[in-house]
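C-alpha cells as discussed.
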C-alpha cells in the first residue's frame, strides 16, 4: 500500500495555522528534534494511534485502517523539516494581531527607511537583552499599532512569530544586498559579543545617502526602504571595488 505524505518544504508554503503551531512549540521550549517530529506529524495530517517498541502506528483521513512507521523512518521524514529551526526567509506574518492591527509588507517593501531602522533597533535590543518588551515594540512597528495596544493584545506566540519573521527579513536582505550586509569576521570564542551601536550605524548610513548634506536627512529617512538599501549597497560595492584596485 502506497501512502502519500506531504508537508511544507519551506516557510513560503506554510499556512498561518502551521506557523502558529510552530511558534507555540518554540514558546513552550520544545527541543529542535521534538519540533521537527511534531510538525511532521501535524503538517502531514497523520495521527498517532499507538506505539509498540520502535514502531509507530498512524491513521490518516480517508485512509482505511492503519499504517506503521519505524523510529528511523519518522526521524528521516522529520529531518526534512529542519528549516523550521534554521532558515526563516519566506515567512508570511499573521494577518492581524487582535482585531485591527495588520502587518506591513512581509519584506518591508512598503515601509520607510526610518521604519526599517526603528524595527532593527528593537530587534537588536531584544537579541542582546532578551527582554520581550522589545519584541512588543517590534510588533508595534511592523503592525503600525501603538505600543500600549500591543501590550494588551499581543501573545507570546505573536511575539515569537515577529522574531522569526524579522530574522527571515534579515536573511533575505543579506542575500539581496550582499555588499551592504557583508558578514564581518567574529571571534567564535567570544561568549559576550558587543551590541551594535545603532545610533552610529544609522548616522553613518544616512550620511552616506546624503553625502553629508544634513538638509536631506528627512528626505532620506522618508524614502522607501528598498530604494535606500539598494543605493547603500551600490555605494558599498563601489567602495569595495575602489579599495581592491588601490
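Sequence:
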Amino acid at each position: 500500500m502506497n501512502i502519500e505524505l506531504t508537508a511544507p518544504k519551506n516557510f513560503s508554503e506554510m499556512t498561518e495555522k502551521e506557523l502558529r503551531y510552530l511558534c507555540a512549540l518554540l514558546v513552550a521550549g520544545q527541543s529542535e528534534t521534538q519540533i521537527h517530529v511534531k510538525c511532521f506529524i501535524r503538517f502531514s495530517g497523520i495521527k498517532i494511534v499507538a506505539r509498540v517498541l520502535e514502531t509507530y502506528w498512524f491513521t490518516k483521513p480517508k485512509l482505511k485502517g492503519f499504517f506503521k512507521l519505524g523510529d528511523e523512518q519518522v526521524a528521516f521524514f522529520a529531518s526534512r523539516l529542519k528549516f523550521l529551526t534554521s532558515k526563516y526567509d519566506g515567512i508570511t506574518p499573521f494577518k492581524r494581531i487582535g482585531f485591527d492591527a495588520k502587518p506591513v509588507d512581509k519584506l518591508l517593501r512598503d515601509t520607510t527607511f526610518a521604519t526599517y531602522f526603528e524595527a532593527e533597533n528593537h530587534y537588536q535590543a531584544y537579541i542582546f537583552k532578551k527582554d520581550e518588551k522589545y519584541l512588543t515594540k517590534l510588533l508595534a512597528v511592523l503592525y503600525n499599532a501603538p505600543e500600549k495596544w500591543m501590550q494588551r493584545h499581543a501573545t507570546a506566540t505573536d511575539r515569537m512569530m515577529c522574531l522569526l519573521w524579522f530574522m527571515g527579513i534579515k536573511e533575505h536582505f543579506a542575500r539581496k544586498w550582499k555588499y551592504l550586509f557583508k558578514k564581518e569576521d567574529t571571534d567564535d570564542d567570544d561568549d559576550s559579543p558587543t551590541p551594535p551601536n545603532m545610533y552610529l550605524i544609522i548616522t553613518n548610513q544616512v550620511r552616506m545617502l546624503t553625502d553629508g548634506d544634513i538638509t536631506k536627512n528627512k528626505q532620506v529617512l522618508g524614502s522607501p526602504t528598498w530604494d535606500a538599501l539598494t543605493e547603500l549597497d551600490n555605494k558599498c560595492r563601489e567602495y569595495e571595488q575602489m579599495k581592491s584596485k588601490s
